[in-house]
Model the fold of this input.
Amino acid sequence: MHIPEGVIVAMLTPFDDKGRIAEKEVVKMVNFLIEKEIDGIFPVSSCGEYVHLDMDERKYLIDIVMDAAIGRVDIIPGTGATCYQKSIEIADYAREKGCSGVVLHGPYFFKNINEIVEGHLKKVALSVDIPIFLYNIPFFANEITPEIAANLCSLPNIVGIKDSSGNMVNVMNLIDMTRRVKPEFKVLVGAEEILFAALAAGGDGCMVATACILPEFMIAIYKNFKAGRLDIALKLQIAILELIRVMKSINFPQGFKEALDVRGIKMGPPKMHFNTRLMENMVQTKKKLESIMRELLSVYFPGESLLYDDSFKGYSKPDSFSYQAKELIHSNNKYIGCINCKGCESDCENSSANGITKQTNKDIEGIIHLITQEIVSNFQK
Done:
């Protein structure tokens, strides 16, 4: 079984002015990250604001990321939910789409005892056929303690954990307790500030939002550490701490989104309401982020552009026929248009919204066939 490790991106989600997933920006982000040689992408993530998305939108985001990646990198979507039925549903969908695994945190909102949390995770693991990374994020969900992880890691499809506690004591105990049961169990950190420390303790990498913004640094920390260049790895780790502090100074995850916007990925307006004072503060913070990032790249990666060059190499641009057709296929009244596909449970009044006419199943199958041929052809060039 292939188990992803290294630098995995906790992917932020761009939205348009109407609060919908900005599909073309998602594609642009995926290509940006893959060109930087990250090891995997974790969409439908906490920093990706999955809690603002309904189930259809989460599945749609998985579709976009998988279509854009074209098998070039591991895709490991999140399955967070308040109950196990919804986690099972999204995990089954990820398996159907060919994802490399899923990320599963404890149930959120209600505060549950450890026995219930463990039971939730075990129920999902026993119900799905896909590798699972447990996800400890005690800020937002019921904690997955080292004891719970050690109890569950003997299950064949529980292959690792992302620990976002930011607590190195926790990380040390996770490494020790799980590997007594399963030596190949992967321990990844979700706090970008401690990647170097976690690697030094025997960890296997990270799943972090900073890898979405400065993948150059996170990858370089990991690769230099693995190559034995510990002094360089530590220097890079310390160098990005100020940036992380500034990103976290804005209501999470908006600071990270503003930083990614600086790199040329349009993230759209905040999902939460920002008053005038907060918006003015965000504008000033964004300028500071740009200054810090520009300086970091010029010092440590001279010649590396701050703004991502959106000239794709060997695969379809998001404004090509293939992706436009893909948008129409996935669309319903919640998204861009409508093809009367029943995806909206037939509750729309106009089955030809935005000028998109009805299409038969045969028409759609033909478009899908053309898309598949074009993607494969472009990728092989």
